[in-house]
Input
Amino acid sequence: MPSYTLKCKCGAFKATFDAAPHINFNCHCRSCVAACKAIEAKEGFDGISIRCDNSGGVAVAIFKSNNVFIKEADASKIGFMKVGERGKWARSYCTECKTVLFNGFFPNRCGANRNALTETEGGEPFTPDDAVINILGNYAFDSERVPVPKHGAVPFGIMLKFIPLIVGWGCDGRNANEKALIPEDMTKVEACTITWE
Output
């Protein structure tokens, strides 16, 4: 059975996964990119970047809640960033080294920083078996820089994999118990500015 570890650079946060990611992709939407840029622009950034390459997208690995095991998560060292004052979800990051931990953490699924994933045995960087596609290229800050394989929206095949996670089919929902990774009050979460409206 595969085993993977997600750690921030300073070691304040650690999670393990007992299965390979359900979906891997690079997201180029302005929302994901803006939130992650805002976190990585913080003073003292010394973390593991979530950027997939020079194109500006973010490297995401989606896991089912059944496969996530939080080992170290000190709530006092986890910060959150949303997009705009009315943002509906928050990206979590380590406040010490500023590594983005999750691009989204929900009861049935989470989107881990793929660049911070390693194989538990040996610590080798995680490498997806298949080509990683680039999604939401039509919504990128610079769509010309989005590399191939490139999709303007979310491809149908990925949507088919996402729908069961959204509705909770085959998921145990236990991520809801990880209070350190879910903000209590979204009105108090730091917001990055929406610059593209």
User: Anything to note?
Assistant: The longest strand covers residues 58-64. The radius of gyration is 16 Å. Helices lie at 30-40, 156-167.
